[in-house]
Write a structure and sequence with these properties.
Layout: H1 3-29, E1 33-37, E2 50-55, E3 67-70, E4 75-80, E5 83-88, E6 97-106, E7 113-121, E8 126-133, E9 136-143, E10 146-156, E11 163-169, E12 173-179, E13 186-192, E14 199-203, E15 207-215, E16 220-227, E17 240-244, E18 251-257, E19 272-273, E20 281-284, E21 287-290, E22 295-297, E23 304-311, E24 317-324, E25 339-343, E26 349-352, E27 356-357
Parallel strand pairs: 19-23
Antiparallel strand pairs: 1-2, 2-5, 3-6, 4-5, 6-7, 8-9, 8-27, 9-10, 11-12, 12-13, 13-14, 15-16, 15-18, 17-18, 20-21, 21-22, 23-24, 24-25, 25-26
Amino acid sequence: MSSFSRTVAAVVGALLLLTMVAGATSMSRGPQQQGISFDSEALTQLQGQRILLTGNQALSDSSAEGVVLDPPAEFRASVEGSTLVIELTQLLRFRQEYRIVAAGVRGVSTPATADWAASVTTADGNLLFAQPGDGGIDILQTSAHDVRAETVIRSLVPDPGAEITALLDLGTAAAAIVSPSPEGGSALIIAPLDGSPPNTVRLPVRGWVSALVFDPVEARLEFDVTPVAADSSAVPERWGISTTNTLAAERVASSEDAVPDAKPRTTEAPPETRGPAGTALESIDNRVVNGAGQIVYTPADEALRIAAVCPSANGQFAAVRLEPRVPGEPSAADAATSYVVIAADGTSVRSISATAVSWCAEPHRG
């Protein structure tokens, strides 16, 4: 055998030996974690979000049995090939670090196990609210982690005598319902938060707008109007507005328009609660109570009553709308305050003078 052939044989033998050693080492150490994937904003806003932990080999189904989240949150764990999937069944808190530990991760063809660890930090949440400003209405923004700090992001000048009666956060824009308009109905204003010119849609007095789509990339607004006969029982008594937050280029909102509610509001009427099913905040005997039975808010002025409790999507905060117990007689102490923002654990309370809050898409009150 020539020296060249011996050299080649030696190199090949060395490579085979290294491969065997690496394989044996891998089998003795178990699967190794290689990456993590998640959407920090969606974790606080959209149900069914997934956190993906990827490994260097196919995983056994038993690898999903030792997953723990801290702080605790509800989830389901499963295995898809070389990926450990953590599917959340609840929304996470704003600006919170969650630690993930997966004990006993095992490969399909390796007896050894490994413990994986990772962390995710969720995005901050925003609260938009509208209040009278110099010559118009200001849309202000405050963050969930510091509800006392606020920034004016847009100033709108609606028709004389009009006010913003509902406000929605579309991510890159605010959707404001302005009522009344000179034509007798209301107007929907889509105001991009970057200062771009707003889009205005005049809404019919009787009927509703459906499938409203705003594309922030092309600044395009599309909508359909469905008329409703004046004597139809389908005419809603008050505004209803909701969003489907896709966290993509399209943000979808739906709204209904109707004549102002002519029914008088009585002091015995129960407060409205607007939020996801299962939200652990409710109003009982003019107090806001959380899921642990703690009283987290009571109006300081006995002349005020709680009219609506509007939790954030993840239940971490709530906007509470106040109104006089006797219609037409505002409280002297709190005449300028229409909302308070509270934390569900009772750690913070902040009063806001506003006509609308994005977490509380209130109907036109008549």
